[in-house]
């Protein structure tokens, strides 16, 4: 190992963008229905299982591509100090960080891009779950503050796609401070009169949900996404109770009033486009084509009690 | 009977011996004043030595000491005319968060705290200081009330963290914490937070997005408990002392990282050995940082508070 393999190769790979690696497995098994899916079909279907509709995790880059019109650009982000605590558990945090950077060709767990949705400009920040579980340390906080400032500068709404296990423990209390820092980011966007839209993807938990990710003007989630504050295991150990069916899933949050809607990945782009139009265009723009029909998942019906409640 | 921590065992033995000797004297036995004096000096030296170099894990234990002054102790000692306020106006009153109005050095203030309780009954009543969404919603409501009436906000933080429960999740624990952080950041009034014991993660920052953050000498403030961190990163909760070290969660470390503004020294042997002196020292320190803030208008306070948090941990950002 030398500086070429450690530093230069990942950089070059990052610049070229395509790492040209042959996938070790051309077939993926859907974790929900166990159907085998050819990798090209899966990609074409935005990583949604064609047979059962299960939403698998999607990369940050994949999200942005699926959301924005052609011609978007990725924003260069300020580099936060790496490993401020010189943290070491069974491995050095600096090594874990470097591995994640090499694997993903990203500096940290968030990609920020500017572009447009159906011609309406937006700034998008997307979490990469495969980068240390999308955990939020100073780098992620910095990315969100940058995205917010850019949105204000561009007079564009800010959309954040989250996927994060929570705070990055290896940055200790500095990672905790990203909670107020990202809340400030949401204030900057809102004070400029711009929509702040959160799309909660699987999984979003801990300090990320307990900060900017619950402060959207509009709260959207993907079907089946795990969303919560405390981990299921911690809750089970604390209350010594079996967790209810579907606990902390997107549909459960919708039922409990925490979300506005659960939207399928294929309808996300059109949904975001229409929301932004409704929030920002007081009169409809010149009609070009009829708007596509949108289907938001309705709140699940309660299991029993099909009789409508009678007014008192 | 004083509660001794595991690492205080040698001190406990010495103090036990002193007590025993004193009882012999009182019972009319031989005069052992000289002996007692010597032992007392020895115990004090040992206490001084032990507390001068507490490890982060030992500090965690001191921060959780059952006899350590709790949030309501500070409120009772420092805030006159205290009027407790209750409820989130939506679902319930959560006793893990205490809130109210009162006077601090003559100034009307709003007070917030996470209260752990002192005996079994009150611990259960306050849910061991672990708040549910209603607690954070009450905090937010009182911060907004303080803003409307220009009352400075004082908070006393001592919590293992937000309560991890089924109902808490169903009622939006994450959202409640996020809104409470937001309310602190937005408050157009001076806001001084003091970490008096455990500053546990989201449940702590919910009440500590303040202009000035004070921390007691042996308090800890972290994104996760050492036990939680150890069981995730080391896959072994017994590694908690190692995790406590790695997390840099002590007042001294956090002062160096510029995440807290000042450290309040504790009486010899920890706050629990002299609660009255501890609470007086906290009162003086809170006043010394609050007084200059009283001259600032709401917009300035808010702008500076934002700047402060945006700068945190940013040294070296390019």
From TrEMBL, chain A:
EC number(s) from the headed UniProt entry? 2.1.3.15
Annotated Pfam families: Carboxyl_trans, Zn_ribbon_ACC
Where is this protein chiefly located?
Answer: cytoplasm
Q: Where are the zinc fingers (C4-type)?
A: 30-52
Extract the GO molecular function terms from the UniProt entry. Answer: acetyl-CoA carboxylase activity; ATP binding; carboxyl- or carbamoyltransferase activity; zinc ion binding
Functional pathway: Lipid metabolism; malonyl-CoA biosynthesis; malonyl-CoA from acetyl-CoA: step 1/1
| Positions contributing to Zn(2+) binding | 30, 33, 49, 52
Q: Which top EC class is named for this enzyme in its record? A: transferase
**Where do transmembrane segments lie in this chain?**
none
The reply to whether ATP-binding figures as a keyword in the UniProt entry is yes
Q: Where is this region: Disordered?
A: 286-312
Note how many cofactor molecules are bound and how. Answer: Binds 1 zinc ion per subunit.
Q: Where would I find the CoA carboxyltransferase N-terminal domain in this sequence? A: 26-294
- Which GO annotations describe the biological process of this protein? fatty acid biosynthetic process; malonyl-CoA biosynthetic process
Composition bias (Low complexity) maps to: 291-312
Q: What catalytic activity does the UniProt entry give for this protein?
A: N(6)-carboxybiotinyl-L-lysyl-[protein] + acetyl-CoA = N(6)-biotinyl-L-lysyl-[protein] + malonyl-CoA
InterPro entries noted in UniProt: AcCoA_carboxyl_beta, Acetyl_CoA_COase_Trfase_b_su, ClpP/crotonase-like_dom_sf, COA_CT_N, Znf-ACC
Q: Which GO terms describe its cellular component?
A: acetate CoA-transferase complex
**Compartmental location:** Cytoplasm
**PANTHER family, from UniProt?**
ACETYL-COENZYME A CARBOXYLASE CARBOXYL TRANSFERASE SUBUNIT BETA, CHLOROPLASTIC (PTHR42995)
Quaternary data: Acetyl-CoA carboxylase is a heterohexamer composed of biotin carboxyl carrier protein (AccB), biotin carboxylase (AccC) and two subunits each of ACCase subunit alpha (AccA) and ACCase subunit beta (AccD).
* Similarity annotation: Belongs to the AccD/PCCB family.
Listed name of the protein = Acetyl-coenzyme A carboxylase carboxyl transferase subunit beta
TrEMBL record, chain B:
Protein EC: 2.1.3.15
Q: State where the protein is found.
A: Cytoplasm
* Pfam families xref list: ACCA
Q: Which GO terms describe its cellular component?
A: acetyl-CoA carboxylase complex
GO BP terms = fatty acid biosynthetic process; malonyl-CoA biosynthetic process
Task: Note whether Iron occurs among the keywords.
Answer: no
Q: Which residues form a coiled coil?
A: none
Annotated CoA carboxyltransferase C-terminal domain ranges read 39-292
Molecular function terms, GO-annotated:
acetyl-CoA carboxylase activity; ATP binding; carboxyl- or carbamoyltransferase activity
InterPro entries, alphabetized: Acetyl_CoA_COase_a_su, ClpP/crotonase-like_dom_sf, COA_CT_C
Q: Which UniProt keywords apply?
A: ATP-binding, Cytoplasm, Fatty acid biosynthesis, Fatty acid metabolism, Lipid biosynthesis, Lipid metabolism, Nucleotide-binding, Transferase
Q: Return the similarity comment.
A: Belongs to the AccA family.
**What's the stated role of this polypeptide?**
Component of the acetyl coenzyme A carboxylase (ACC) complex. First, biotin carboxylase catalyzes the carboxylation of biotin on its carrier protein (BCCP) and then the CO(2) group is transferred by the carboxyltransferase to acetyl-CoA to form malonyl-CoA.
How does this protein assemble?
Answer: Acetyl-CoA carboxylase is a heterohexamer composed of biotin carboxyl carrier protein (AccB), biotin carboxylase (AccC) and two subunits each of ACCase subunit alpha (AccA) and ACCase subunit beta (AccD).
Q: What is this protein called?
A: Acetyl-coenzyme A carboxylase carboxyl transferase subunit alpha
What species was this sequence derived from?
Falsiroseomonas bella
Q: What does UniProt list as this organism's lineage?
A: Bacteria, Pseudomonadati, Pseudomonadota, Alphaproteobacteria, Acetobacterales
Gene name, per UniProt, is: accA
